[in-house]
Design goal:
Layout: H1 25-39, E1 47-50, H2 56-66, E2 69-74, H3 84-95, E3 99-101, H4 106-110, E4 133-134, H5 139-142, E5 150-155, H6 163-176, E6 182-187, H7 193-200, E7 207-211, E8 218-219, H8 220-225, E9 228-231, H9 233-241, E10 246-249, E11 256-259, H10 279-287, H11 303-315, H12 333-352
Parallel strand pairs: 1-2, 2-3, 4-8, 5-6, 5-9, 6-7, 9-10
Antiparallel strand pairs: 10-11
């Protein structure tokens, strides 16, 4: 956990990562009671915002209890959804102007196979995140940088699915160039120590890996020391807007999309027209070709302007307060029974052991 966020840990309600249908009545009511207490007010001027799919039924229930509005603003990376009952829910929210996402194709993917949404009708609200960069000195972090021919950076959580395959490909790339020294700086961490061990296992004599752990903000001067960045979604935007040459990774197949600002603007999903180049090809192009790539200019994100867009979107939401019957999103009766049996078995095992 980022230490500056530690004071807010007491406000976490972990139950909302589960479908409310597999919770007991007591567990469900306790989670709602705690969230109502945290919100501290009610009425139509209150907006509950949920950002990931599992939390959306809870957001709808909470808004109903508070007679509030519920905006679903999804900021995920993978929007593939093979769950018609959730697609019906999201389509209902879309029709009410209560659904948006952080990319222009997200809602199209979300409702694919259920309803065709024109790209220009897919609500886009940027999730401001590149303001995590700031210029400051940190001897502890600065000391991670070693002498190397090439420094490669990546910003983001290390438990993202693309990270290990990416590091594995970098390790292979370094093995292919035994006369060069590479260092990978991973600006981020993971709650699972196994992720860290697996990544570090790919170290070579000429390929060293440094991990900062959870970090906020990211020092600007370190970003500018990197020869190239490899990242996806918000992490890619962060390095690019801070002046780093950035290869973006598709969150669906973990293969490169392209070089940000050169042959793509996409950070999550590639345009179907783009030819897929391997990470090896793109790194060779950036690091070893005669063509010199110019680092992009530093762009300061206009957060105030983005928030104005968010507020304008809220004003366009359906004025009539209506709420979806979230019981329609519950798993089947058999699934709920099986879950309870499995949960009971786990409790018994703990008692026995």
């Amino acid at each position: 956990m980022v230490k500056e966020l530690a004071p807010y840990a007491k406000d976490i309600v972990p139950t909302i990562v589960k479908n409310p249908g597999i919770c007991s009545n007591r567990e469900r009511e306790e989670a709602l009671r705690r969230m109502i207490e945290l919100v501290g007010t009610s009425g139509e001027n209150v907006v509950i915002e949920t950002n990931f799919m599992a939390a959306t039924p809870w957001g709808e229930m909470l808004a109903e209890r508070l007679h509030a509005r519920h905006l679903i603003l999804l900021i995920q990376e993978d929007y593939r959804l093979n769950a018609p009952k959730y697609q019906r829910f999201f389509a209902w929210k879309y029709d009410r102007g209560e659904l948006a996402a952080n990319t222009s194709t997200a809602i199209l993917q979300l409702l694919e196979g259920y309803r065709n949404i024109p790209k220009d009708k897919s609500p886009l609200l940027e999730a401001c995140c590149s303001n995590v960069v700031e210029e400051y000195k940190s001897p502890e972090i600065d000391s991670l940088i070693e002498e190397a021919d090439y420094h490669i950076g990546s910003i983001g959580r290390l438990n993202k699915p693309f990270v290990y395959p990416m590091v594995s490909q970098l390790s292979a790339f370094a093995r292919f160039h035994p006369d060069k020294r590479f260092q990978l700086i991973l600006f981020g961490g993971s709650p699972d120590k196994l992720d860290i061990r697996n990544i570090l296992s790919l170290t070579l004599d000429n390929f060293h890996i440094a991990i900062t752990g959870p970090i906020f903000p990211v020092p600007l001067h370190l970003i500018q020391k990197m020869d190239v960045f490899i990242a996806s979604a918000g992490g890619a935007r962060t390095s690019y807007e801070a002046g780093g040459i950035t290869i973006t990774i598709d969150a669906n197949d973990y293969e490169p999309i392209g070089i940000m600002g050169v042959d793509t603007k996409m950070t999550i999903k590639r345009d179907e027209k783009i030819k897929i180049l391997s990470l090896k090809e793109l790194l060779t192009k950036i690091l070893f070709s005669d063509k010199k790539f110019t680092k992009p200019p530093i762009v300061l994100e206009d957060i105030e302007r983005e928030f104005v867009k968010h507020l304008d979107y809220l004003k366009g939401m359906n004025k009539r307060l209506l709420y979806y019957n979230t019981r329609k999103l519950w798993p089947s009766f058999i699934t709920r029974i099986l879950y309870k049996i499995k949960n009971l078995n786990n409790i018994l095992l703990k008692i026995v052991l």
